[in-house]
Amino acid sequence: MVMMLMKATAIANSNIALVKYWGKRNSDLILPYNSSVSMTLNNLNTKTTVEFNKTLSEYEVTINRKVAKGEELARVANHLELLQNSSPHKIFAKVRSESNFPKKAGLASSASGFAALTLAGTKALGQDLTVKNLSILARRGSGSASRSILGGFVEWTKGSLPDGLDSHALQIKKEAHWPELSMIVTIISTEEKKVSSRAGMSQTVKNSPFYSAWLDTIESDVEKMKQAISEKDFIQLGKIAELNAIKMHATMQTTTPPFIYWEAGSLSIMKEVLKLREEGIECYFTMDAGPQVKILCQQKDIETIKSRVTEINLVKDIIICHPGKEARLTEDHLF
Ligand code: DP6
After folding, report:
1. What residues have CB less than 8 Å from 291, skipping those under 6 apart?
2. Does the pLDDT value for residue 1 go beyond 70?
3. Fewer CB within a 10 Å sphere, N or C end of the chain?
């Protein structure tokens, strides 16, 4: 008898939110309080190979060449169990995952990681899911992963159903709509963050007095952002993205106890961006759950901004990104 090989490999790009997801209305199903909008990035990605194997007696997971243990292993194992929910016999799997950027440093490694795991895992199980169903499943691994299933410019609609079946990503525009839109990712520190985005957003929902103010303005930010993307209005996109990021950070800085992802280098870059704007160079910053600053700019200004940012000696590395494509399968397995 020929044994069917239950193995597949997927590559998913990371995404950076232009209007952020921050706060869950249901932590088990990962359902957000607000919709969000992101850009999938071409140069930050995760490749993952999953092989279900009946001879295994446990999950064997390697992430960036290190054997996963504890909570990290549990998150991957739980996700693989979820993908197998519809099948009568649970099978363990071997997983190897590699990202071309540091994980847990505010560069959305869980987004590309769980998007790649979902696509590779379902394919290895012989399932061919729709983009919508892949996005719903990826969301259960990490909320932002729902958006990395799609390329270009993406909205994650918060939905309203208790089971979350209407909470998934939709493409606003393909990457080819605005290929010259640029994001300069500046690396300030590659140390793993002390407060995960998961713990951070939970604490914020619980006790930031600003959280309701965040929710008051978010749907309007989403609508304005979608319009800016459709019209390729760079200034509008930059203004909304920057203010939205500052608003999100204000909510976490006002929790008890407060937490601040910004490092000295982050602040230096934010100020440099404001200075560049005063000099007539249109650029805007956004930041996530980590110290890295991502600068939104137009293709023509990349070199000027890059050389100014390089002068700040707290910057360790710079990665230039443009809109990237959707999660996809490859035959080039990692093992
Ligand atoms: C600041 O998707 O990492 O990057 O759903 O708990 O896994 P979990 O959180 P995660 O949070 C991302 C938060 C953010 C904003 C965003 O990507 O929208």
Report:
1. 105, 106, 188, 189, 261, 262, 263, 265, 266
2. no
3. N
